[in-house]
Amino acid sequence: MDIPNRKSEDKAQRDLGAVLNDMLDTVKSSYGEKMFNILYKRIEKTLDDFDKDVRKILEDIEKKDTQYFETLPDIKQKSVRISEWKKSEMPEEKTEETAGILSESEEADTDADQVIIERIEKRKG
Fold it and tell me: Which of 24, 84, 110, 112 has its CA 20 to 30 A from that of 121?
């Protein structure tokens, strides 16, 4: 339904409430009180459904976020164990060339893990 005497670019700049009021007024004047009430009930139901959906999504996000931060200490502990395991699995005697490459990758893994952990802790606040 188009609101009389309104260009489409004007609608985009207006407040949603004002647009809905104009639409409802147009329906009421064109089709009468009964059609206005039917449309109004449909809009209310749509908004209620939307509100329920958004609340459910936010609850799911909060639940997953809580679970994530509850498991964070386990993730940190596993990261430490993996780093220790990598160090213990390396042969004792290394050539100079191999030793340099391996230690750089170990440091990169540990540094990357630490950066991730620090970001998570900042996010947790």
Answer: 84
pTM reported for the whole predicted model: 0.45
Number of domains in the chain: 1
68: amino acid identity, one letter: Y
- pLDDT, position 51: 97
Question: Torsions phi, psi of 79, nearest 5?
Answer: -65, -40
Residue 93 lies in a domain: yes
Tell me how far apart the alpha carbons of residues 77 and 81 are, in angstroms, rounded to a whole number. 6
What span, in angstroms and rounded, lies between the C-alpha atoms of 39 and 28? 9
Rounded-to-integer distance, Cα 43 and Cα 34, Å: 14
Rg from Cα positions in the chain? 30
